[in-house]
Amino acid sequence: TVTLMTQYMVTRPLYSEDAFADVHEKIHRHHKTVRHHVKQYFTCDLKRAKNAALSLLPFIGWMRIYQLKEWLLSDIVSGVSTGLVAVLQGLAYSLLASLPPWYGLFTAFFPVIVYFFLGTSRHISVGAFPVLSLMVGAVVTRLVPDEGPPVNITGFEGLTSDEQRVMVAASVTFLMGIMQLTMGLLQVGFIVMYLSDTLVSGFTTAAAVHILVSQLKFVLGLVVPGLSGPLSIVYTLEKIFVQIEKTNVCDLVTSILIMVVVFIVKEINDRYKAKLPVPIPIEVIMTVIACGVSYAFNFRVNYKVDVVGRIPVGYESPMGPNMQIFGQTAVEAFPMAIVGFAVAFSVAKVYSVKHDYIIDGNQELIAFGASNIIGAAFKSFAASTALSRSAVQESTGGKTQIAGLLSALIVMVVTLAIGFLLEPLPKSVLGAVVIVNLKGMLMQIREVPYLWRRDRPDCVVWVVTCLASILLGLDLGLAVGLGIELLTVVFRAQFPRCSVLANITGTDIYKDRKDYMSIYEPEGVKIFRIPSPIFFANIDFFRGKLVEAVGFNPLRVLRKRNKALRMIRKLLKKGELQMTSVSSGVNWNSELPANIHVPRVDVHSLILDFSAVSFLDISALKGLKAALKELIRVEVEVYIVACDAYILKKLHSCMFFDDEVKSSMFFLTLHDAMLHILEKHPVNSENTKVCEKV
C-alpha cells in the first residue's frame, strides 16, 4: 500500500525581524499598572460579591444543582460505607499519632463538617491520613516521650501523659491549619507544584515503611517506646528485635489472620469491582468479628492482649492551642501543612477530572486550614484525606459531600452511643488493618526500575527522598527530597543538551545532524541550538558549547590574528616584505608570508536557534554580547532566529545593539536565515536540495 502524504506550499517574502516589523504593524497593548491591579482587586460590586460567596462556600454551587432522586440514595449508601471505614481508620490512625484511639473519631467528625461547607471536591473523604498521623506522632513523642519526663511547657502542669499528648497534637494541628489558611488567603496554592509526583511517591513510600515499623509493636504485642528524629526507625527496630522472644502469640496470630483475609478480599474487590454493587467492607466485618471473639474469650485478661479499652461517651470541651508548643513545633508543622494539602489536592484532582468538575487549589487550602483549626479546637489531630477511604466514598456511588456529611453522622453515632462496643477490640487488629492498607504505597517501589530506564535524575530524586525520609525522619526527608528535586531542575537548565542542526534535504525542517542521514549542510554554515533559558548559571556553558560547535575559539583566533598583523607590519616597516596594503584586509584562510600561521576559520555564518530560549537575564545579555562580538570580529556573520518577542523587547531596552551587534541579525525563522545566507554566499553544487526562496 502507498501512503499519500498531505503537502503544502507557501510563497512569502524572506523575513528578518526588522523586515517583518516594517511590513506587519503590531497592535499596541496597554499593560495595566500595579496600582490598577490593586484598585481592581479591592473594587466590590454585586457580581463580585456573589462570586466571592460562591467561591468561599462552594457547597452552594453544587447544592443548587443537586439531583435529589438520582443522587440521594447513592450518597446515603456511600456515606454509611465510608462512615464505617472512617470509624475503623480513625481508631487505627490514632495509634500512629501516639494518642488514645477515640481521638481518631474526633478527626473523622469535625474536619468533615467544616470541609462540607468550604471544600471544592465532591468525592474525597476528609479525616485522618496515615502519613500525617505519623508526623503528628513524631512531634508528640518528641515533646511527651514514653520514657522520661516531657519537655518543660507551661500548661502541662496537672495533666496526665495522654492529656499532654492531646494538647501537643491539637496545638500542632492548629498551627498547621493556620499555615494552610494563610497560604490559601494569600493565593499560593501553586506551592504544591514544587512537589513532583516522583518526590511524593518516594516520600509516601518511606512513610509507609515508617508506618509499618510503628505498627509492629501492636502486631507483636510488645511494649516499645515511641521514638522520633534521625535514625529513629533503626532504634525502634533494635528495641523490637531485642525483645522479640516476648511476642504475644495471640496478637501475632490474630494480626496475621486479619491481614491475610483482608488482603484476599481486597484483591477480590479490585478484580470484580465492575460486577460488585459495592466493595465488600472486609475491614469492618473483620473488626466486628475480632471484637466479638475478644469479648467472648476475654483476650485482655486471659491472653494479656492490649485492647482499645474505655471509650468515653460524647465530645470533650473545646480548648485553645498552647503558644509555647507553637514555638516548639513550627518546623514540623510547615511540612505537615504542605504534605496534607498536596496529598488531598492530588486525590481531589483525580476525581474532579473523572467526574468533570473544577477544584480550586487556593480554596482547598482555606477549607483544610479551617477544618484543622476548628478540629484542633475540639481535640482532633491533623486531617487530610486517605486514598483508600476516598476510594470507598467514590466507588460506592458517592456524588457529593452529602456522603461525607453522612459518614460524619455515623462517626457521631459511634461516639455518642455505641463506642463501648469497640472497647474489647485488640490494638493488634487495628495495626493489622493499617499494615494491609499500606500495599498501594509500598508497591510504589516498582517505579524505580522504570524511572532508571526513562529518566535517571527523576530516579535519583525518588531514591534520595525515600532513603532520606526513612533514615532522617519524614520532615527532614521531605526537605532533602525538595532540595534534590530543585537541584535536578537547576542542573537540567544549567547543562542543557545543546545540538548542531542540519537541514532535512528538500524541506524547510531542521533537526539534530546526528539523528538523520538525508541532511544538507552548506559549507561554512553552522546552526547551533540551546534548548533552555540562558542565565547567569549557564552562560559560560553556552559559550563553551558554542566554541565546540563552530570548531574554534574566536578569542584565541582574534589574538593570533592581531599578533600576525603586528608581525606583518613589522616586516613591512623593515622592508623585508612587500604588500600594497594591509589595511584593505588580509585573507586569513590563505597562505601567509614569512611562515606566519594563524588558526583557520572555515565558518562564515553561524545561526543561533533561540526557539527554546524563554528568557535572558542581565548576566546572559552581557555574555551573549561578548560572544557575538568575538565571532563578528573574526569575520563570522551571526544570525539569531525564532527569538521570543519579549526577549527582543528586553534586548532593545537594555541597549544590546550597537555598531557591531545589530538588530538586522535577527530573523523570523531558521529557514529565512538560511536562505539569506545562501543568497549572500552562493553554493555551487548539484547536490544542493533545499527549499528555496521563490
From TrEMBL:
Gene Ontology biological process terms in this record: transmembrane transport
Highest taxon of the lineage: Eukaryota
Pfam family, one: Sulfate_transp
UniProt keyword list: Membrane, Transmembrane, Transmembrane helix
Gene3D superfamilies listed in its UniProt record: STAS domain
UniProt topology in membrane: Multi-pass membrane protein
Residue intervals of the STAS domain: 515-677
Matching SUPFAM superfamilies: SpoIIaa-like (SSF52091)
Classification via InterPro entries: SLC26A/SulP_dom (IPR011547), SLC26A/SulP_fam (IPR001902), STAS_dom (IPR002645), STAS_dom_sf (IPR036513)
Gene Ontology CC: membrane
CDD domains: STAS_SulP_like_sulfate_transporter (cd07042)
Membrane-spanning intervals of the chain: 72-96, 102-119, 126-145, 193-212, 218-237, 249-266, 278-297, 333-353, 365-382, 402-422, 460-484
NCBIfam families (UniProt xref): sulP
Name of the featured protein: STAS domain-containing protein
Biological source species: Oncorhynchus tshawytscha
